[in-house]
Amino acid sequence: xxxxxxxxxxxxxxxxxxxxxxxxxxxxxxxxxxxxxxxxxxxxxxxxxxxxxxxxxxxxxxxxxxxxxxxxxxxxxxxxxxxxxxxxxxxxxxxxxxxxxxxxxxxxxxxxxxxxxxxxxxxxxxxxxxxxxxxxxxxxxxxxxxxxxxxxxxxxxxxxxxxxxxxxxxxxxxxxxxxxxxxxxxxxxxxxxxxxxxxxxxxxxxxxxxxxxxxxxxxxxxxxxxxxxxxxxxxxxxxxxxxxxxxxxxxxxxxxxxxxxxxxxxxxxxxxxxxxxxxxxxxxxxxxxxxxxxx
Length: 295
Prior knowledge:
Elements: E1 2-6, H1 9-12, H2 16-29, E2 33-36, H3 62-71, E3 77-80, E4 83-84, H4 90-103, E5 111-114, H5 119-124, H6 132-148, E6 154-157, E7 162-166, E8 180-184, H7 187-196, E9 199-202, H8 208-224, E10 233-239, H9 244-252, E11 257-261, H10 267-280, H11 284-289
Parallel strand pairs: 1-2, 1-11, 2-3, 4-5, 5-8, 8-9, 9-10, 10-11
Antiparallel strand pairs: 6-7
Helix pairs in contact: 2-10, 3-4, 4-6, 7-8
């Protein structure tokens, strides 16, 4: 099992020193990755299904945040959980993701994208809320097309995006295909993971049986699309008090990675929770084997 952690500026604040200290501590303990969340803009009454989000929550831009973290770390992978893909133009996003990946020497490898659940946020970005699934699908295709394209350029003419003979450089670090994971709790998200995703990051308030159905749907959709279902990584959220027995249950359900959030207004308390978790699951060997990519 691989363990990652998440830092939420919405609840832990925007102090850059605290963010860097958290990321460095996670890296030193052997956590695989650091995930950050995303909202472009909030508004009074914004409700994402389980309650309202206070409009003053300070969400960093996730890619700017991860670029900052990358400059202060060496091994830890960089992830989004989730980046709201329908609200980003894929031509610009391809450049930004490749830039972070090159500057971090190949650590922008846990990009997870989702659709967003706030109609007001979509409206503010000029996006029809009902179209965001189709926009996301097309954006994923455009990202991969641009990364794989050569000096003669690539062309695309879709429902939302169109260009001719376009070149996007630099390419990601030592590759032309950054992994793209799909986040969400709906059947559509699971199917999107099966058709286009390199991984599925399950969210939402679902029962274990419902989650099993979702990952099974993702893998069946992959098979139907001629893809290898075994190559779809399965990521789940976990809590700081996870027991070894509970982690074994996760593994029995096919989970590859658990992203753990550590609460606490006090940074020292947060760090202590992380250290206790790392000791519980002996993460140090992961740290010793997780070497930075060669230049």
